[in-house]
């Protein structure tokens, strides 16, 4: 009887260890996707400042600066700088998607929402910089799981219910589109 009890205990411990390991990737992905969504929602505020100022959405010098800074931070975190550049480029593309969509909506309506406008340089960009630091740490936590066959399922679950409308859902899909790396059969 002690042999059966030991066998049951060993089996139970193995199952628990497996379930903890299986949960870890999804648990590291969820905060990353939430941060990406938070970053996209700031795009609404950026769109308001662009609406008011008439400045173009495309800001190539700023984008290059953000990517260069992220690549420096990537090296410090032992991440591939090219992977981080791709991640940040996807975030900026997704953010521009939100901005273009909102500006088109407001142009059709003849006005943007009457909401407070934070300062782009003094309030919005520092917030984006803070989010970038958090995003890179969360990306580093998740990076080992990017090739896992279950990654797309985890990603779909992590994105589920986060967005407020179809525009933001599409943008979040773009922002997360390269988090999982699909294996291609030889």
Strand content: under 5%
**H/E element sequence:** HHHHHH
Count, helices:
6
CATH superfamily: Chorismate mutase
| SS elements, strand count | 0
**CATH fold-level assignment:** Chorismate Mutase Domain, subunit A
| Structural class by sheet pairing and helices | mainly alpha
Count of individual domains? 1
The proportion of residues forming helix, as a percent range, comes to over 70%
Unreliable stretches: 7-22
Mean pLDDT: 87
Shape: globular
The Rg value, from CA coordinates, equals 21 Å
Regarding CATH, which class?
Mainly Alpha
CATH architectural arrangement = Up-down Bundle
Describe this structure in words.
It is a single chain. This protein is an all-alpha fold. It has one domain: Chorismate Mutase Domain, subunit A. 76% of the residues lie in helices and 0% in strands. The protein has six helices and no strands. It has helices at 2-53, 60-76, 81-109, 120-142, 151-159, 166-176. Helix 2 (60-76) runs antiparallel to helix 3 (81-109) and helix 3 packs antiparallel against helix 6 (166-176). The longest helix has 52 residues, at 2-53.
């Amino acid at each position: 009887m002690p042999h059966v009890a030991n066998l049951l205990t060993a089996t139970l411990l193995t199952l628990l260890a497996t379930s903890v390991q299986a949960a870890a990737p999804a648990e590291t992905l969820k905060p990353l996707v939430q941060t990406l969504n938070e970053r996209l929602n700031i795009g609404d505020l950026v769109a308001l400042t662009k609406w008011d100022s008439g400045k173009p959405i495309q800001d190539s010098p700023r984008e290059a600066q953000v990517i260069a800074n992220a690549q420096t931070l990537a090296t410090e975190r032992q991440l591939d700088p090219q992977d981080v550049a791709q991640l940040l480029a996807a975030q900026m593309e997704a953010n521009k998607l939100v901005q273009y969509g909102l500006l088109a909506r407001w142009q059709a309506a003849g006005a943007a929402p009457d909401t407070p406008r934070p300062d782009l340089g003094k309030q919005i960009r520092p917030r984006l910089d803070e989010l970038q630091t958090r995003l890179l740490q969360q990306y580093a936590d998740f990076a080992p799981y990017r090739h896992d066959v279950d990654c797309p399922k985890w990603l779909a679950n992590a994105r589920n219910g986060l967005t407020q409308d179809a525009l933001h859902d599409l943008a979040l899909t773009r922002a997360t589109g390269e988090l999982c790396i699909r294996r291609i059969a030889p």
